[in-house]
Amino acid sequence: MSARGRCAKVLPSELNKVCPERGDDPATRPRKMSDFEVVPNLQQSSSSVSKSRRKAHFPSGSNEKENLISWIPENIRKKECTYFVESSQTSDSGRVVCECGYLREQHLDDAAKPPIFLGKEWDPSRHIQEMPTDAFGDIRFTGLGQKTGKYVRVSSDTPPRVIYHLMTQHWGLDAPNLLISVTGGAKNFVMKPRLKNIFRQGLVKVAQTTGAWIITGGSHAGVMKQVGEAVRDFVLSCSHKEGEIVTIGIATWGTVYNRESLVCPMGGFPAEYMLDEENQGSLSCLDSNHSHFILVDDGTHGRYGVEIPLRTRLEKFISEQTKVKGGVAIKIPIVCVVLEGGPGTLDTIYNAITNGTPCVIVEGSGRVADVIAQVANLPVAKITIALIQKKLSVLFHDTYELFTESKLVEWTKKIQDIVRSQQLLTIFREGKYGQQDVDVAILQALFKASRNQDHFGRENWDHQLKLAVAWNRVDIARSEIFTDDHDWKPSDLHPVMAAALISNKPEFVKLFLEQGVRLKDFVTWDTLVYLYDNLAPSCLFHSKLQKVLLEEREHTAGSKVPRLQMHHVSQVLRELLGCSTQPLYPKPKQTERPRLSIPVPHIKLNVQGSSLRSLYKRSAGRVTFTMDPVRDLLIWAVVQNRRELAEIIWAQSQDCMAAALACSKILKELAKEEEDTDTTDDMLALAEEYEHKAIGVFTECYRKDEQRAQKLLTRVSEAWGKTTCLQLVLEAKNMNFVSHGGVQAFLTKVWWGKLSVDNGLWRVITCMLFFPLLYTNLITFSREKRLQPMGCLARLRAFFTAPIVIFLMNILSYFTFLLLFAYVLMVDFQPAPSWREYLIYFWLFSLVCEETRQLLYDPDGLGVVKMASLYIKDFWNKLDICAILVFIAGLTCRLIPSTLYPGRIILSLAFIIFCLRLMHIFTVSKTLGPKIIIVKRMMKDVFFFLFLLAVWVVSFGVAKQAILIHNEERVEWLFRGVVYHSYLTIFGQIPSYIDGVNFNIDQCSPNGTDPYKPKCPETNADNKKPIFPEWLTVILLCLYLLFTNILLLNLLIAMFNYTFQQVQEHTDQIWKFQRHDLIEEYHGRPPAPPPLILLSHLQLLVRRGLLRRPATRHKLKEKLEKNEEAALLSWEMYLKENYLQHQQCQEKQNTEQMIRDIAQRVDVLAELLDLDRVKRTGVVEQRLGSLEDQVHQSAQALRWMMQALRGNGFSSGEDVPPVGSSKALDTKESDLEGKPEESRPPYHVLARNLLYPGSHTLRFPVPDEKVPWEVEFPLYNPPAYSADHKDMAVQDPFSLSLESLLKINYNTMDGLIDRQSFHGLYAVQDGLPLNPMGRTGLRGRGRLHCFGPNHALHPVVTRWRRNLDGSIIRKSLKKMLEVLVAQYPLSDVWALPGGSLEPGETLPLKLKWILRREFWAQFQNLLKQGTEVHKGYLDDPRNTDNAWVETVAISVHFDTQNDVEMKRLNSFLQGCDPELCIRWQVLDKRIPLHANHKELLHKVSTLLGAYY
């Protein structure tokens, strides 16, 4: 008890209070969700913990199980009877039971003994006590596989917040997006097979798509069994991940059969439960298809309905909770679904409607559901006691005799109230919604209730849209929200757009884009920060961002992690895109920080939408729009690997080819670091998909215009860090793109420079050797092809600056260098270097200078360190450095006389490396290039093969050396014996002495002293014959040769073959990709070959060092003018649309897709035919009924004619029978799906609500037909209720005694109290006045102060609604009004500023609270000048048979905005009571006011001709 006493009080209303006067003030913004504690000492678990709990389905760790075992007994109780009193009834077996229903042995030991209660009557409030629960844990249904759920036994008085905490924190359930309460028949009933299938499929669909909880009674019977079987069928037909539907059964503990197996004081993990319907008797078994059970215990046995109050409280508590997900906060909606049912079901429906819960009635399920469904479309006035009696006699034919007259009256009254609330009532008819559309009916019921709910302004539409987003039902949003009833501004959709992005709901993003959301307006700097703040914690990009933030904290030596900014995102993106790109989001300077980095407090979109919406209400001067919003959103989606979202956003992009290539690069880099293999595969697949998109767009462009398409490759993209498409392709190693014919044609064009690509290679070589031939027609230039003549010098320059000519000249130079180097090494290597050798040194110096230029050439400003790392990554550069270093080492030794020979050796090794460098030259050849790639791959195979070979070589060599030779101490001969000889053995050079046959002692050294001979094997001392075991060495040799020659060498051949086949398939792509490196290298290389290249280096040194000129960009980049770039991007975007349309056409033409479409159409056609059959059947029945009615009418008419003729004339007193068919008319009315008549009811309605406000008193049910006093109502016996107010001076006597009532003077002034009615004299019966409007179901004066009329005054203060320029706003061609409304303390409803008049007062007390005292007299003058719009009876919930409210409503309208009285009124309102909330509200029929106040507003709007 104490544990529950400490529970914190939940104030959900705090989250939803609206005070528009302060709505936009940041100081009054709603608190965070964490500020509201649900259960003390327990915080809400993180999403990751909840996710892990959901996966395990029960606490996986021992600590969590121990916490559950300790937490439940401390917070959850059960109930036990502590006093045994024999009951007059017996158990099913005939044994004596207690008044609680349990046997004597089922009580506690103390309860069976004669206690202090002896002789007293059994009282549940005294004799039933609470104690820690003893039944909780996991429940497993025996014989039904692995069906395991959760269960707990709770007291009927358990606070709902404790149960909700148990479900969300300890059971690991996510808060629902929707609560579906299914109620109806508790016993098994028969449903039509078609209707049963429709209901099952629709219910499960709505639960699965919206993330709902389904709450039922939990037993294996009736509607609960139908729900369980629906969930079972869905789980069996879906995967485990999709089949998680939360189905909660709330049952009575005392009615559960075999509940003893669930009792386990330390928790059952699991508890075995057997479902036994045959022996359950009057009890009921739990349904095995429910996932969670809450078993409500009140200490009794066998009494049904105990769980209903707790279930109602729990459902109400859950519906008051706010769920925040994806930036959207919604109050959890609840809907009641009804199948069949009896009297208890009617009470449930009535209570749900009274509490504002929408209900869906399934017609055709039977009993109560059919009664309500059949009268739902009738006007309330036609729902009479006789009609309900007729319906009950048909639908309750088995139990109809149990319905008394008073019960019929009660049912009629409740059904009238239910039907009157059409906005909360939805009838599901099989012929109306079609097959599998119960889910649509449920969601439409919620939307209909929300749409008709009172609200301020556009709040209701926002709430509906948030519900649709939370449920991820874009179909409902299209059909119910985005209609002609409401005009959506694009800015209104920005908050839900952000929520849809965060929640990864691409269909909604697509819908919002269709509704006019412009990404340029949506994506602001703050929005991007918010989106990156809400990255999924499991996302790799999120962890990389956190790492950057931690590094910044360490760098700044701060104790707090810095707030995420876009330059942090840019830092991570640059790592992924490569350092060749510039930062996408620059780091703001200190002076720019307030503008670029606006602090965004509590970015949370609550139900009123006052937080995330504030991001889009900032002034234009403070918001900074990013340069490319589509790019920003695309990056955000791609880094989270969200395929559908990224595809939608990419379709909006303008620089689409660069965007696709950048996405491919980002995904490939992320895939390298991703640990989850499935996510890695998804990323790589998505990267390949974006590469194909880029190829598709480029193909479209290349087909249209080759020149413009090639410009797209080299255009500098400002949006993507000043990089190019070609550079992004190379960074991402997209070989498919590079091998595209258009890209290769471009590279070929670059390779030939200004020469025409039609020139043969032999012509180029000929002109290179004999350059005067350039001035002939042997060589053609591209300009000459375009009929542009070239001068002699221009031809010479164009020829020798072409990359292909530079390449050929460098080949010629390199071959000359190698020939000269070989000649010097073999012929002219003198102690003193010759001139040829000096020429080699000079040549090498030019090569070193060129490598230095390549190392330091940095046109993009990347820095020396980055350029060095890029230079080292290239394999051929490594080979160049190695050759140069070895040559320098050899040269150093060569110049020292004592090391002349070692120098020559080292130079010889350098020559080998220089020769290997020739392979890079051959990569340009289409024949040799791919072969070099294959050789490089095979070298890797050889490298790994040597590890395997070394194991056998070393093992055999050591064993052979140890067996043959004793203590060989010479290291060089040890290496020869172990490694060298063993390696040669593989190739057939077997040692002669290994088998002892060819042993010759002269070929070895006995003691190992001869440095040129190996040591002799083990021999005997006499004849010097070997004594080692020859048989062993021969076996080892055979095994060694078997494994090395046959196994390993063939393995190497197989590896080579596999590598060759694998590379051969892609060798063309690989060669084309690597060809670019060679072309780019010679495109930026100086034209002169070594050693003449030193002249170019000298020119470069003068320009950079002395003249300080910037480096010229030789890379394949081109920066276009703005106009040209805009035109090029527009052209690219147009062709991208063509590509997307072509893709859609291909998908439609796909055979599999066509088969799926045909199958879908056949299903739709079959459904329509089936539905048409149902409708035709109904139409035929209606026509037959109409025909029978017409025949009956015709018979009556003929009978009348015969009687008239018998009377000799037509003067018969009988009326002519009606020609039309009343039954046919009723049938036609029942077919109408429109709303019933909205005419004002003839009798008071609010005054007949069954529950009297502010009390627990229930009125006597009064149907509409029994309201007038003139109608006889013998059963009428209303209870009496009169509230006792604190101020005794202003109320009539509390007692209804005749003496006190005779002192009251009715129909006149009774002292200061005016007891005169505006409707004239009223009747007085037994000293009590009678309500002139009829019966209300309650005697006394209720909460009113006086018997008879209680007078009130309601001023209706209005003004025109105006724009900023002062013009009046119109809607539907009518002017719009604003009315003054107030919210009083302790009230959640707004009202007109008025109320009851105290005796002798002229202004209501509530009006005086609003106005200052000095303005009272002036306001009375305004009332005198106003127009009276109502004077008389007011339908008020407080009215009774003997006391009622009569009011005078006066319209005070300010026609001009400069009205002095209005300004004075506003000034006096500003100084009002701070506990009050006052506002000018736009007049609309949906504003949340008292219902009777709305009638007054309607009259005022009619008087002024304004919109209502």
The average pLDDT value, as a whole number, equals 80
Low-confidence stretches: 1-60, 591-626, 1212-1239
For the largest beta-sheet, the strand count, sense and barrel status come to: 10 strands, mixed
Strand order across the largest sheet: 10-5-6-11-9-8-7-14-15-16
Q: What is the 3D form? A: elongated
- Radius of gyration using CA atoms only: 47 Å
Number of DSSP E strands: 30
Residue share in β-strands: 5-15%
Helix segment count?
A: 54
> Structural class of the helix and strand makeup?
alpha/beta
Overview of this structure, please?
There is one protein chain. Mean pLDDT is 80; it is low at 1-60, 591-626 and 1212-1239. With 1508 residues, this protein is an alpha/beta fold. It has a 10-stranded mixed beta sheet with strand order 10-5-6-11-9-8-7-14-15-16, with helices on both faces. Strands 23, 26, 27, 28, 29 and 30 form a 6-stranded mixed beta sheet that branches. A two-stranded antiparallel sheet has the order 1-4. Helix 11 (343-354) links the parallel strand 14 (334-339) and strand 15. The chain is built from 54 helices and 30 strands. It is elongated and about 150 Å long. Helix 28 runs parallel beside helix 31 (725-732).
